[in-house]
Design brief:
Length: 563
């Protein structure tokens, strides 16, 4: 019996009407049994923490509550259960708000929530949340909940929880749970599985990708699944789009979670038909004895100013204004001062904008006054006494706080994972009886290399796709190809050393290469390249979203036979 789970949100701020689209689409034979919504990310937890400082009753995704003004009735009419992590830092508060909304709408909606992820205050942290698994969700559904609200759970738990409930899987049916984890990881970012942010988008009709539909997983009792989408919606589902999402924000072959450790090196993807990709063969292992904890705290205060340098003598203009600002800041220099000259200018340009480069100054300090008036004065007072053509993109403000995300780990028994059932009963979730410490997987055998032959220097992206993302201060870039011959080349050509040559900004960064032959993929992790995480905005691309596209754009020698 097929159990259909759809997703209608990949982040806080995703397409508002996706809930309606997923509840009304699919037709009589394609309606979903459960609709999930993923609203949480590392940055979101910081935003919700700041909200709660102002209003203790807040701390959840208010967008979800507005979506439910229509969604609760649609779900009730169609018999669809809803599972979401929109509870954020206050799942009980969102559950109460949903009950009030259901009463106002005259609906008999039974609401439950999961709590225990929020840990006692840690010095300097706005929020400390453990990543829970799906067992609490399963308990709520088993008790008859129509809507289950969670706080910080793993993204895949929104799928593993309903699957455990529906199929009655035990906590040690690791292969089945691992299959659900992989399906959940594909669904979690919404349209990234259906053609959104896809490396090979040029190979498809632009009109098709203008508004991708949201993904659906058809789960089976043995843990296998088919990834698809509602008929008539935009986008596409193929082995490439699913591979891209599988590599997103992962690392090695062991993908650890509180329910199970899924072995990504066992995943088998098969095209089953148009917009249908089967996932099977996934093996699972006992989960680790600890849970990951996300710590969100204020890191200090930040400000920036962007100077526009136009026409001739760009380097000299940059040196002049930089020296002037540095002199002005000498009496109270912020703790961190960073300059970056972005050469967007072109010679003999036919517009002023394309004749201009940008000089970006970012300052950070624990004290707000060090990044406020001091920087504003230093920049603005130069308006008539600096380089020719002086102007800035916008007047610098008074500065703003920035956040820092850190990871920690605690024993699973120290976290009071609790399902709060629709009748208010509090049901503790048992801890796993078996656990397994994580250890690296031996490097698999590589395929036979291609024989020597003529090559052509072209961008890596001519044959390779990539997707990149962030995990705290680390980044990953997953690179994959689509044929066995291309894999024979990629596995030997794209070494850590070669990646470092192609991406000079990674100098001094620890890079680890993970080999995933079944996906014809390499996954590279870059330790600490994002500083203290996305909210600290340490890089031009603070979430490493385009790091993979930069790598694809770099020229390398590719065998002509592959081109």
């Amino acid at each position: 019996m097929v159990f259909r789970i759809g997703n209608a949100s990949g982040f806080y701020g995703d397409r508002f009407d996706a809930v309606r689209e997923m509840l009304t689409g699919g037709g009589p034979d394609g309606a979903v049994d459960v609709l999930t919504g993923d609203y949480l990310a590392e940055l979101t937890m910081l935003i919700l923490g700041r909200d709660q400082l102002k209003d203790p009753s807040s701390g959840y995704a208010k967008t979800f509550l507005r979506q439910m003004e229509e969604g609760l009735g649609l779900a009730h009419d169609r018999g669809v259960r809803i599972v979401t992590n929109a509870g954020g830092l206050n799942p009980a508060g969102l559950a109460d708000a949903l009950r009030v909304l259901a009463a106002k709408l005259g609906l008999p909606t039974r609401v439950a929530h999961v709590e225990g992820d929020r840990l006692p205050a840690v010095d300097g942290a706005l929020a400390a949340n453990a990543y829970l698994g799906g067992a609490g969700i399963a308990a709520c559904l088993a008790a008859g909940a129509d809507v289950v609200v969670t706080g910080r759970v793993t993204d895949a738990a929104l799928v593993t929880g309903p699957a455990q409930w529906h199929f009655g899987w035990g906590p040690e049916e690791y292969d089945k749970l691992a299959g659900a984890v992989v399906a959940g990881h594909v669904l979690e970012c919404g349209t990234q599985a259906t053609g959104g942010n896809y490396a090979f988008f040029r190979e498809h009709d632009p009109a098709l990708l203008r508004r991708p539909g949201f993904p659906v997983a058809e789960l089976h009792e043995d843990g296998s699944a088919v990834i698809t989408k509602h008929p008539g919606t935009g986008g596409l589902v193929d082995v490439g789009t699913v591979t891209a999402q599988l590599l997103y924000e992962t690392a090695g072959a062991r993908y650890a979670g509180p329910d199970v450790t899924a072995r990504l090196d066992t995943v088998r993807l098969t095209r089953e038909g148009p917009d249908r990709v089967r996932i099977d063969g996934v093996r699972g292992e006992a989960p680790p004895p600890t849970l990951k904890v996300g710590l969100s705290r204020l890191g200090g205060f930040r400000n920036e100013v962007v100077f526009v340098l136009t026409g001739l003598d760009i380097e000299e203009k940059a040196a002049l204004v930089r020296g002037q600002v540095e002199d002005a800041l000498a009496g109270g220099r912020p703790r961190e001062v960073r300059w970056e000259l972005v050469r967007t200018d072109r010679p003999d340009a036919d517009s002023e904008e394309t004749a201009s480069a940008l000089l970006r100054l970012v300052v950070r300090d624990p004290a707000p006054e060090a990044v406020g008036r001091a920087l504003t004065g230093a920049a603005v007072e130069l308006a008539l006494s600096s380089y020719p053509g002086f102007h800035v993109t916008a007047p610098p403000g008074k500065g703003a706080p920035y956040g820092v995300f850190e990871s920690a780990y605690v024993p699973v028994a120290d976290v009071p994972h609790t399902a709060v059932l629709p009748d208010g009963t509090r049901a503790p979730v048992p801890v796993p009886q078996r656990t397994r410490e994580l250890a690296p997987v031996p490097v698999p055998d590589l395929p036979e290399p291609l024989p020597p032959g003529p090559t052509r220097r072209v961008p890596l992206g001519r044959i390779a796709g990539a997707r990149s993302g962030d995990k705290g201060g680390d980044a990953n870039v997953g690179v994959w190809v689509r044929t066995d011959e291309e894999w024979r080349w990629l596995a030997h050509a794209l070494t850590v050393e070669r990646v470092r040559e192609l991406l000079p900004e990674t100098a001094g960064v620890e890079i680890t290469r993970h080999v995933l032959p079944r996906l014809r993929a390499l996954n590279f992790t870059f330790a600490g390249i994002l500083g203290e995480g996305v909210a600290s905005q340490a890089r031009f691309d603070p979430q490493a979203k385009a790091l993979g596209e930069w790598l694809r754009s770099r020229a390398t020698d590719i065998p002509e036979g592959l081109l």
